[in-house]
Amino acid sequence: MLTARDDLYPSRYGQQTQWLPRQDPVVHGAREDLLAAGWRLTDIEAFERDGFVVWNDVFDASEIQAMQTDALRMRTDAACCAAEAAITEPGGQALRSLFQIHASQALWQRVAQDDRLRARAQALLGDQVYIHQSRLNYKPAFHGQAFDWHSDFETWHTEDGMPRMRAVSMSVTLTANHAQNGPLMLIPGSHRQYITCLGETPQDHFKQSLQRQTFGVPSAEAIAQMVETLGLVTVEAAPGAVIVFDCNTLHGSNGNITPWARSNAFFVYNAMCNAVQDPYGPSATRPEFVASRAHITPIQAPTDPAPIAA
Amino acid sequence: MLTARDDLYPSRYGQQTQWLPRQDPVVHGAREDLLAAGWRLTDIEAFERDGFVVWNDVFDASEIQAMQTDALRMRTDAACCAAEAAITEPGGQALRSLFQIHASQALWQRVAQDDRLRARAQALLGDQVYIHQSRLNYKPAFHGQAFDWHSDFETWHTEDGMPRMRAVSMSVTLTANHAQNGPLMLIPGSHRQYITCLGETPQDHFKQSLQRQTFGVPSAEAIAQMVETLGLVTVEAAPGAVIVFDCNTLHGSNGNITPWARSNAFFVYNAMCNAVQDPYGPSATRPEFVASRAHITPIQAPTDPAPIAA
């Protein structure tokens, strides 16, 4: 039984939904190190309280242009689209997500190394960091599908063997995110509880879950109760912002019928001391492009001092 | 060829998308008649310009309560749910729409007759009116699906044989409509153009179109171009408001993953002089519950002076 292993955050064992308290800090590093890395005091407090914070105007116009150009190139690049790391929309051929961009594409490696992301993640997590997952999310215009409510940590723990809550997601906005085009919605304060999910994980779950998640989604009752108490926040941001959220903050997004696509580049920084082990749930591991396992090395500051540019 | 008939608004003949000018007034009645019926001057002007207007606080708390109670009763009533007029969500059993409520349910007949709706529709359309279609829309929490962009008139003309643009929709909000739960989005000013749609209508199209529309949806290019020029408006309103929109105003809505359902009672008033004829598209007519044809009689003021109450 996998449950025999010391598992602080058990999930998907067929039991009733349980609300377990978080066993880990939210801010792991020393406050002075966060401030030195560029965190503002109010943002540290907001992140600790809400489980997320939005930094506007992190990237400038030329950097945004370079990222948008490269995202468009990859989207129409036959090799990129044919790769295992390319996930299409359910029932369609439109690209929904392209994974492992930090490892395969020079521009995105450079972005992942940038002080404004990496150094701030290091300070927050109080350790060297590596990229557990990276991807470009294209939410297409007109037919963009929803992402159901979930805690990333629940999946990373159960399916990838991430032991503790010591990882942070940074989502760089490449297009405007506004109320109408299926923006990210978060439940502020939800990161302080761990909601167990029902049902055992099927083998090869990732193939389907990357299109539309069904396991690892908390019950409707749990979400309703949490939103009733904590509310719901929609992130609206211009291109070049960074949405920073804790690995256990519940989030999701509606579909998008507007003519405005919603694209983000998404990087998950995990503390080196929190590197993945064997999964707590299914015996098989997920592929490398979804969860780094073979190449866990600290991500470093850029060696090339050149700015992010096309 | 059906095209041989005098058709001011041809659509779905396999041609390229065309932008045809509206051949009909937006406000058909005399301004003094609209004012006498309770229209405000600014609302008349807004409706003429934008193709819609939102009236807040039309129904009071006890009326809202009575409507909510009855909507809940019908949703859980086995006979209502088993009726042909009950449409479920795609891929599920949750009730999406319940049609013909003005004819089958006393409370909703009373609402349809109410001066605040019927008399104002009469004044706007400059004629006696009948109900072309009525329904309760339940957009469920968590799994509410999107409604794609469409002009109601395009369908009513092509599939039901409504000759001219002389009908108005009134949607009574039964729950809060806000930015997060898949609210109605409209393109202001879109009612002044008629965008032809592509593809011939399959037989029995209504069975599938009431779940998710594929024919009668303008091309993505046309929608994008229109939104670029005219913008997009999201309707946010408390329960008891009325969203009034012209039959040709382009509208749609995103799905809903929030815990908040979004329900509306929807009445389409058509001018008696504009009663449906043979369809301009397919030879078969749609069922009576979707489009009144057998019982076209003017809707009258309530005979029972009692208020709307449970």
Description:
Two copies of one chain form a homodimer. In chain A, the strands form three sheets. A seven-stranded antiparallel sheet of chain A has the order 2-11-7-13-5-4-3. In chain A, strands 6-12-8-10 form a four-stranded antiparallel sheet, covered by helices on one side. In chain A, strands 1-9 form a two-stranded antiparallel sheet. Chain A is of the alpha+beta class. In chain A, a hairpin with a 6-residue loop joins strand 3 and strand 4. Chain A is 27% helix and 20% strand. Chain A contains ten helices and 13 strands. The longest helix of chain A has 15 residues. The first copy, chain A, starts with 18 loop residues before the first strand and ends in a 39-residue tail after the last strand. The first copy, chain A, has a single domain, classed as Jelly Rolls, CATH 2.60.120.620.
